[in-house]
């Protein structure tokens, strides 16, 4: 029915897979920090993170309307299924609810949400998105911040530093790859992303360099005995292997389809990175 279709589009605009990954990530962080028994705090944290991310995803789609008409014409706002006004109100409702949920969390975590995450999300959507590297950096930083936020909620931030770093670097490489994939639509919309400003070859070189750096750096926690062998196995299969494939794909071709394939591989690598940290921290010694 028509009503069901509208509801489905309002769910789709949130990017439910991203929301689900975020919720599972909070659960994984809580388990690493031995904080699973505090159920109310866990629920408040999951709700806060999911409301913020849902709101940020909608703000992103609002700003991307012009480019998405070319790059992703089936997105609810680009396809004009949801109006800009309705989407704006929806995003505000989610973000304000997320900010409200913070009153139920420890003050340090609430302050990070109010003073860092919220302003950065808004400034990114309005301004930073179109600045090469800065936009990619903010998105990656906010993803990494999710782990530090969990560390503050459960009052043990140190074990969250490595996951935050890995999430930051994998997201940064993926954001750059998405810029390469979206070059046509972005160019026609007058955006100035890194590949548009500095050329496709430079962007590909940066992706290759960052992929290699991320691959090498992410092995260090195993070798300095922070995580067990249960970190290394999923890391090699789920992070190192996709990163290596990305490097080879880009060395062979700089095409849009290479960027699309690489973007999917990097999303998988990000999820596998979270899994390897979880298994490395909770299984074995």
Automatic annotation (TrEMBL):
Q: What is the organism lineage in this UniProt record?
A: unclassified sequences, metagenomes, ecological metagenomes
Q: Spell out the subcellular localization from the entry.
A: Membrane
The organism named in the record is marine metagenome
Q: Which UniProt keywords apply?
A: Membrane, Transmembrane, Transmembrane helix
- Give the GO molecular function terms: transferase activity, transferring alkyl or aryl (other than methyl) groups
Gene Ontology cellular component list: membrane
Residue ranges crossing the lipid bilayer per the database entry:
12-33, 39-59, 93-117, 137-154, 203-224, 230-251, 263-281
Name of protein: Uncharacterized protein
Keyword DNA damage listed? The answer is no
